Amino acid sequence: MSTPTPADATASENPGRIGPYRVVKRLSASCCSVATYLAESPSGERVVVRHYADPPARRPADPSSWLDRLRQASTVGTAHVLDVGPDYVAGEHVDGPALPTEIQNRGPISGAALQRLAIATVTALAALHRAGIDHVGIRPSRVLLGPDGPRLAYPGPEHHDMSSSAHETNPLSAGALSWRAPEELEGHRPGPPADLFAWAAVMAYAATGRDPFDAGSITATIKRLSNAAANLGALEEGALRDLLTDCLVREPDQRPSAEDALLRLIGHSHVLETAVPDSVVAPRAAARPRSGLRRVVLPLAAGLVLALVAGGVSAAVTLRTAGDRRPATAPTSAGASWTPRAVPSGPLSPLPRGTAVTLPGGLGTVYEDPADPVRLGSIRVNDGSKDESSSASYARDPKTGAFEEVGLPNTLAELSPDGRWLATLDSLFLATSNQLDVAFTDHLTGARFTVPALRLPYVTFGFAWSRQSDSVVITAVKQEKGKGKDTNTVYAAGFVIIDVRARTSVFVPTSDAEEVKSAGSAIDPNSFLPLYRWAPDGRSVAARYVTANLTQGLRFRDLSGQPIRLMHWVGSPTGNGDWFSPSGELFATSGCGQTPVICVWRTATGQRVATIPATGGGSLIGWYDERHFIEVSREDGVHRVVARDFAGKVARVLAEVRAPASALVDVRYTRG
Known about the structure:
Domain Protein kinase: 21-271
Helix content: 10-25%
Number of helices: 12
Family: Belongs to the protein kinase superfamily. STE Ser/Thr protein kinase family. STE20 subfamily.
Mean pLDDT: 77
Low-confidence stretches: 2-12, 161-174, 268-335
Transmembrane segments: 296-317
Distance between the termini: 42 Å
Region (Disordered): 323-355, 377-400
Organism: Sphaerisporangium flaviroseum
Number of strands: 37
Structural class: alpha+beta
Largest sheet: 6 strands, antiparallel
């Protein structure tokens, strides 16, 4: 939602409350009794509320249709719509100036900053179009320059009949006309091409500081708009100017799509190897190519680019050069493929009893049943002593079911969700090398290889597989010396994405360290370390973060490191692998109540669905099925792994591991 320059307002212009939101002040007012307010949600979060005193004059009758599409799609780079009521739309408050304020205070934008602004805004536009939003209505005041990058504000579709008696301002206002396409002036319904026209005009304004269609009078301006005679002024010759010129043509079907524009901006000219699932792609009529129009051929969906580019140019730095990349592993023979273990779908009732399977090294017993939706994939026990015989790390062969020792207790090992790949790393690699390599074993082909992931001064405490079993995310940690003797502090510095089949890695820096440092003594950095995990879609990652109120919340980032979603109210995500339920619809957190509890939330909405009393000495490590957690508790020298339901009742014992109460017992389950 837009955060306009505050308007002068009297006390009578403040309605006090709009729905559940307490109004702080009015920000702006427009025609048809529409006003925008800065407000606070019941939880104290700052939001922007757009209020419609006469809803039929400006709002569609059923906002649920477009709201659902927004929530289902990857609307990266936008100020998110949070709530919709009968007479209001509440959205995210972006703490930063709108584009006109930035231009007024600091002048036109140029160079790399202009390129980043163009990429960020057209990425948001492409995502909205893919969500089925036909017309966004971009204008300078809806481009917000937040602390985490540019955002495009979209309050939802609105009626705006400028010839209507309800329209309270001059229908020929040059400010209102400047960001409209020629077809709108002719009375045609605007669609995605109109957004590309307006986007190009806004980018020209950002680059020059002036309206590209301003001709000195309203009549002359309308004539220039009707003929699409834009004045790009001193905008530098090059790829961006060429693209804006193509977007500012008069004929709608000759303008590039937002996705085409995005690919041109980032110089993407090779065939994409990843396509976005059809379920998130709204149908759209194909545009006829313009003769001589410089375009990029797009054989597959541009969803990968949307996932990588939101908010600006990627901050990722590849560890390998292009010439050093190794080819993906080939199957041993034509038609060879990996078939994951079949697992039941949905919650089980009752849970199967399980048959005892002895763990190696006298570690204890696992209780398993073929109907179990999960299977123990690896186990690591470290009692902290110098006697290595009392500590071990084992991983399971998915073909034989046997546990095999994979290294010393400092070796972290985990099977991919489908069981095909085993990943291992040495958490104490600094003892022998200045570079961390992740080793992979392909259980289909038998191939073994390593991928470099981190170099000094970065280390890591763990990693996690994507649900698609094709990528690994590693949290990059940097240690800094403290002021006192032998005092060191660790901070999360970013994350590394490893593409297993391509055998490449990308380091993505983040702002986590700066945020923790800015909290001062209120946060102990050594006890607050964000660990990155994959979101269910495999196109974004998530980690806990320090909120403005110095509490903990969940933040989603795209694969370039840009924040795309915040849940400041949920507490700290919990689990040692995949935080999300098998369907991806739920996740669990701790630190979400006045007493020790586990809270279960809906991933799509952030709505709480269950509050479960925490068990003394127990720790939640993952999900058994949609209605049961996997938890480890310590009792009488035995670490008991159980499936616990939302009522807090133990429904099944999954394993019993014999180890001292002080020992670290790390168990990882897989669904393949």
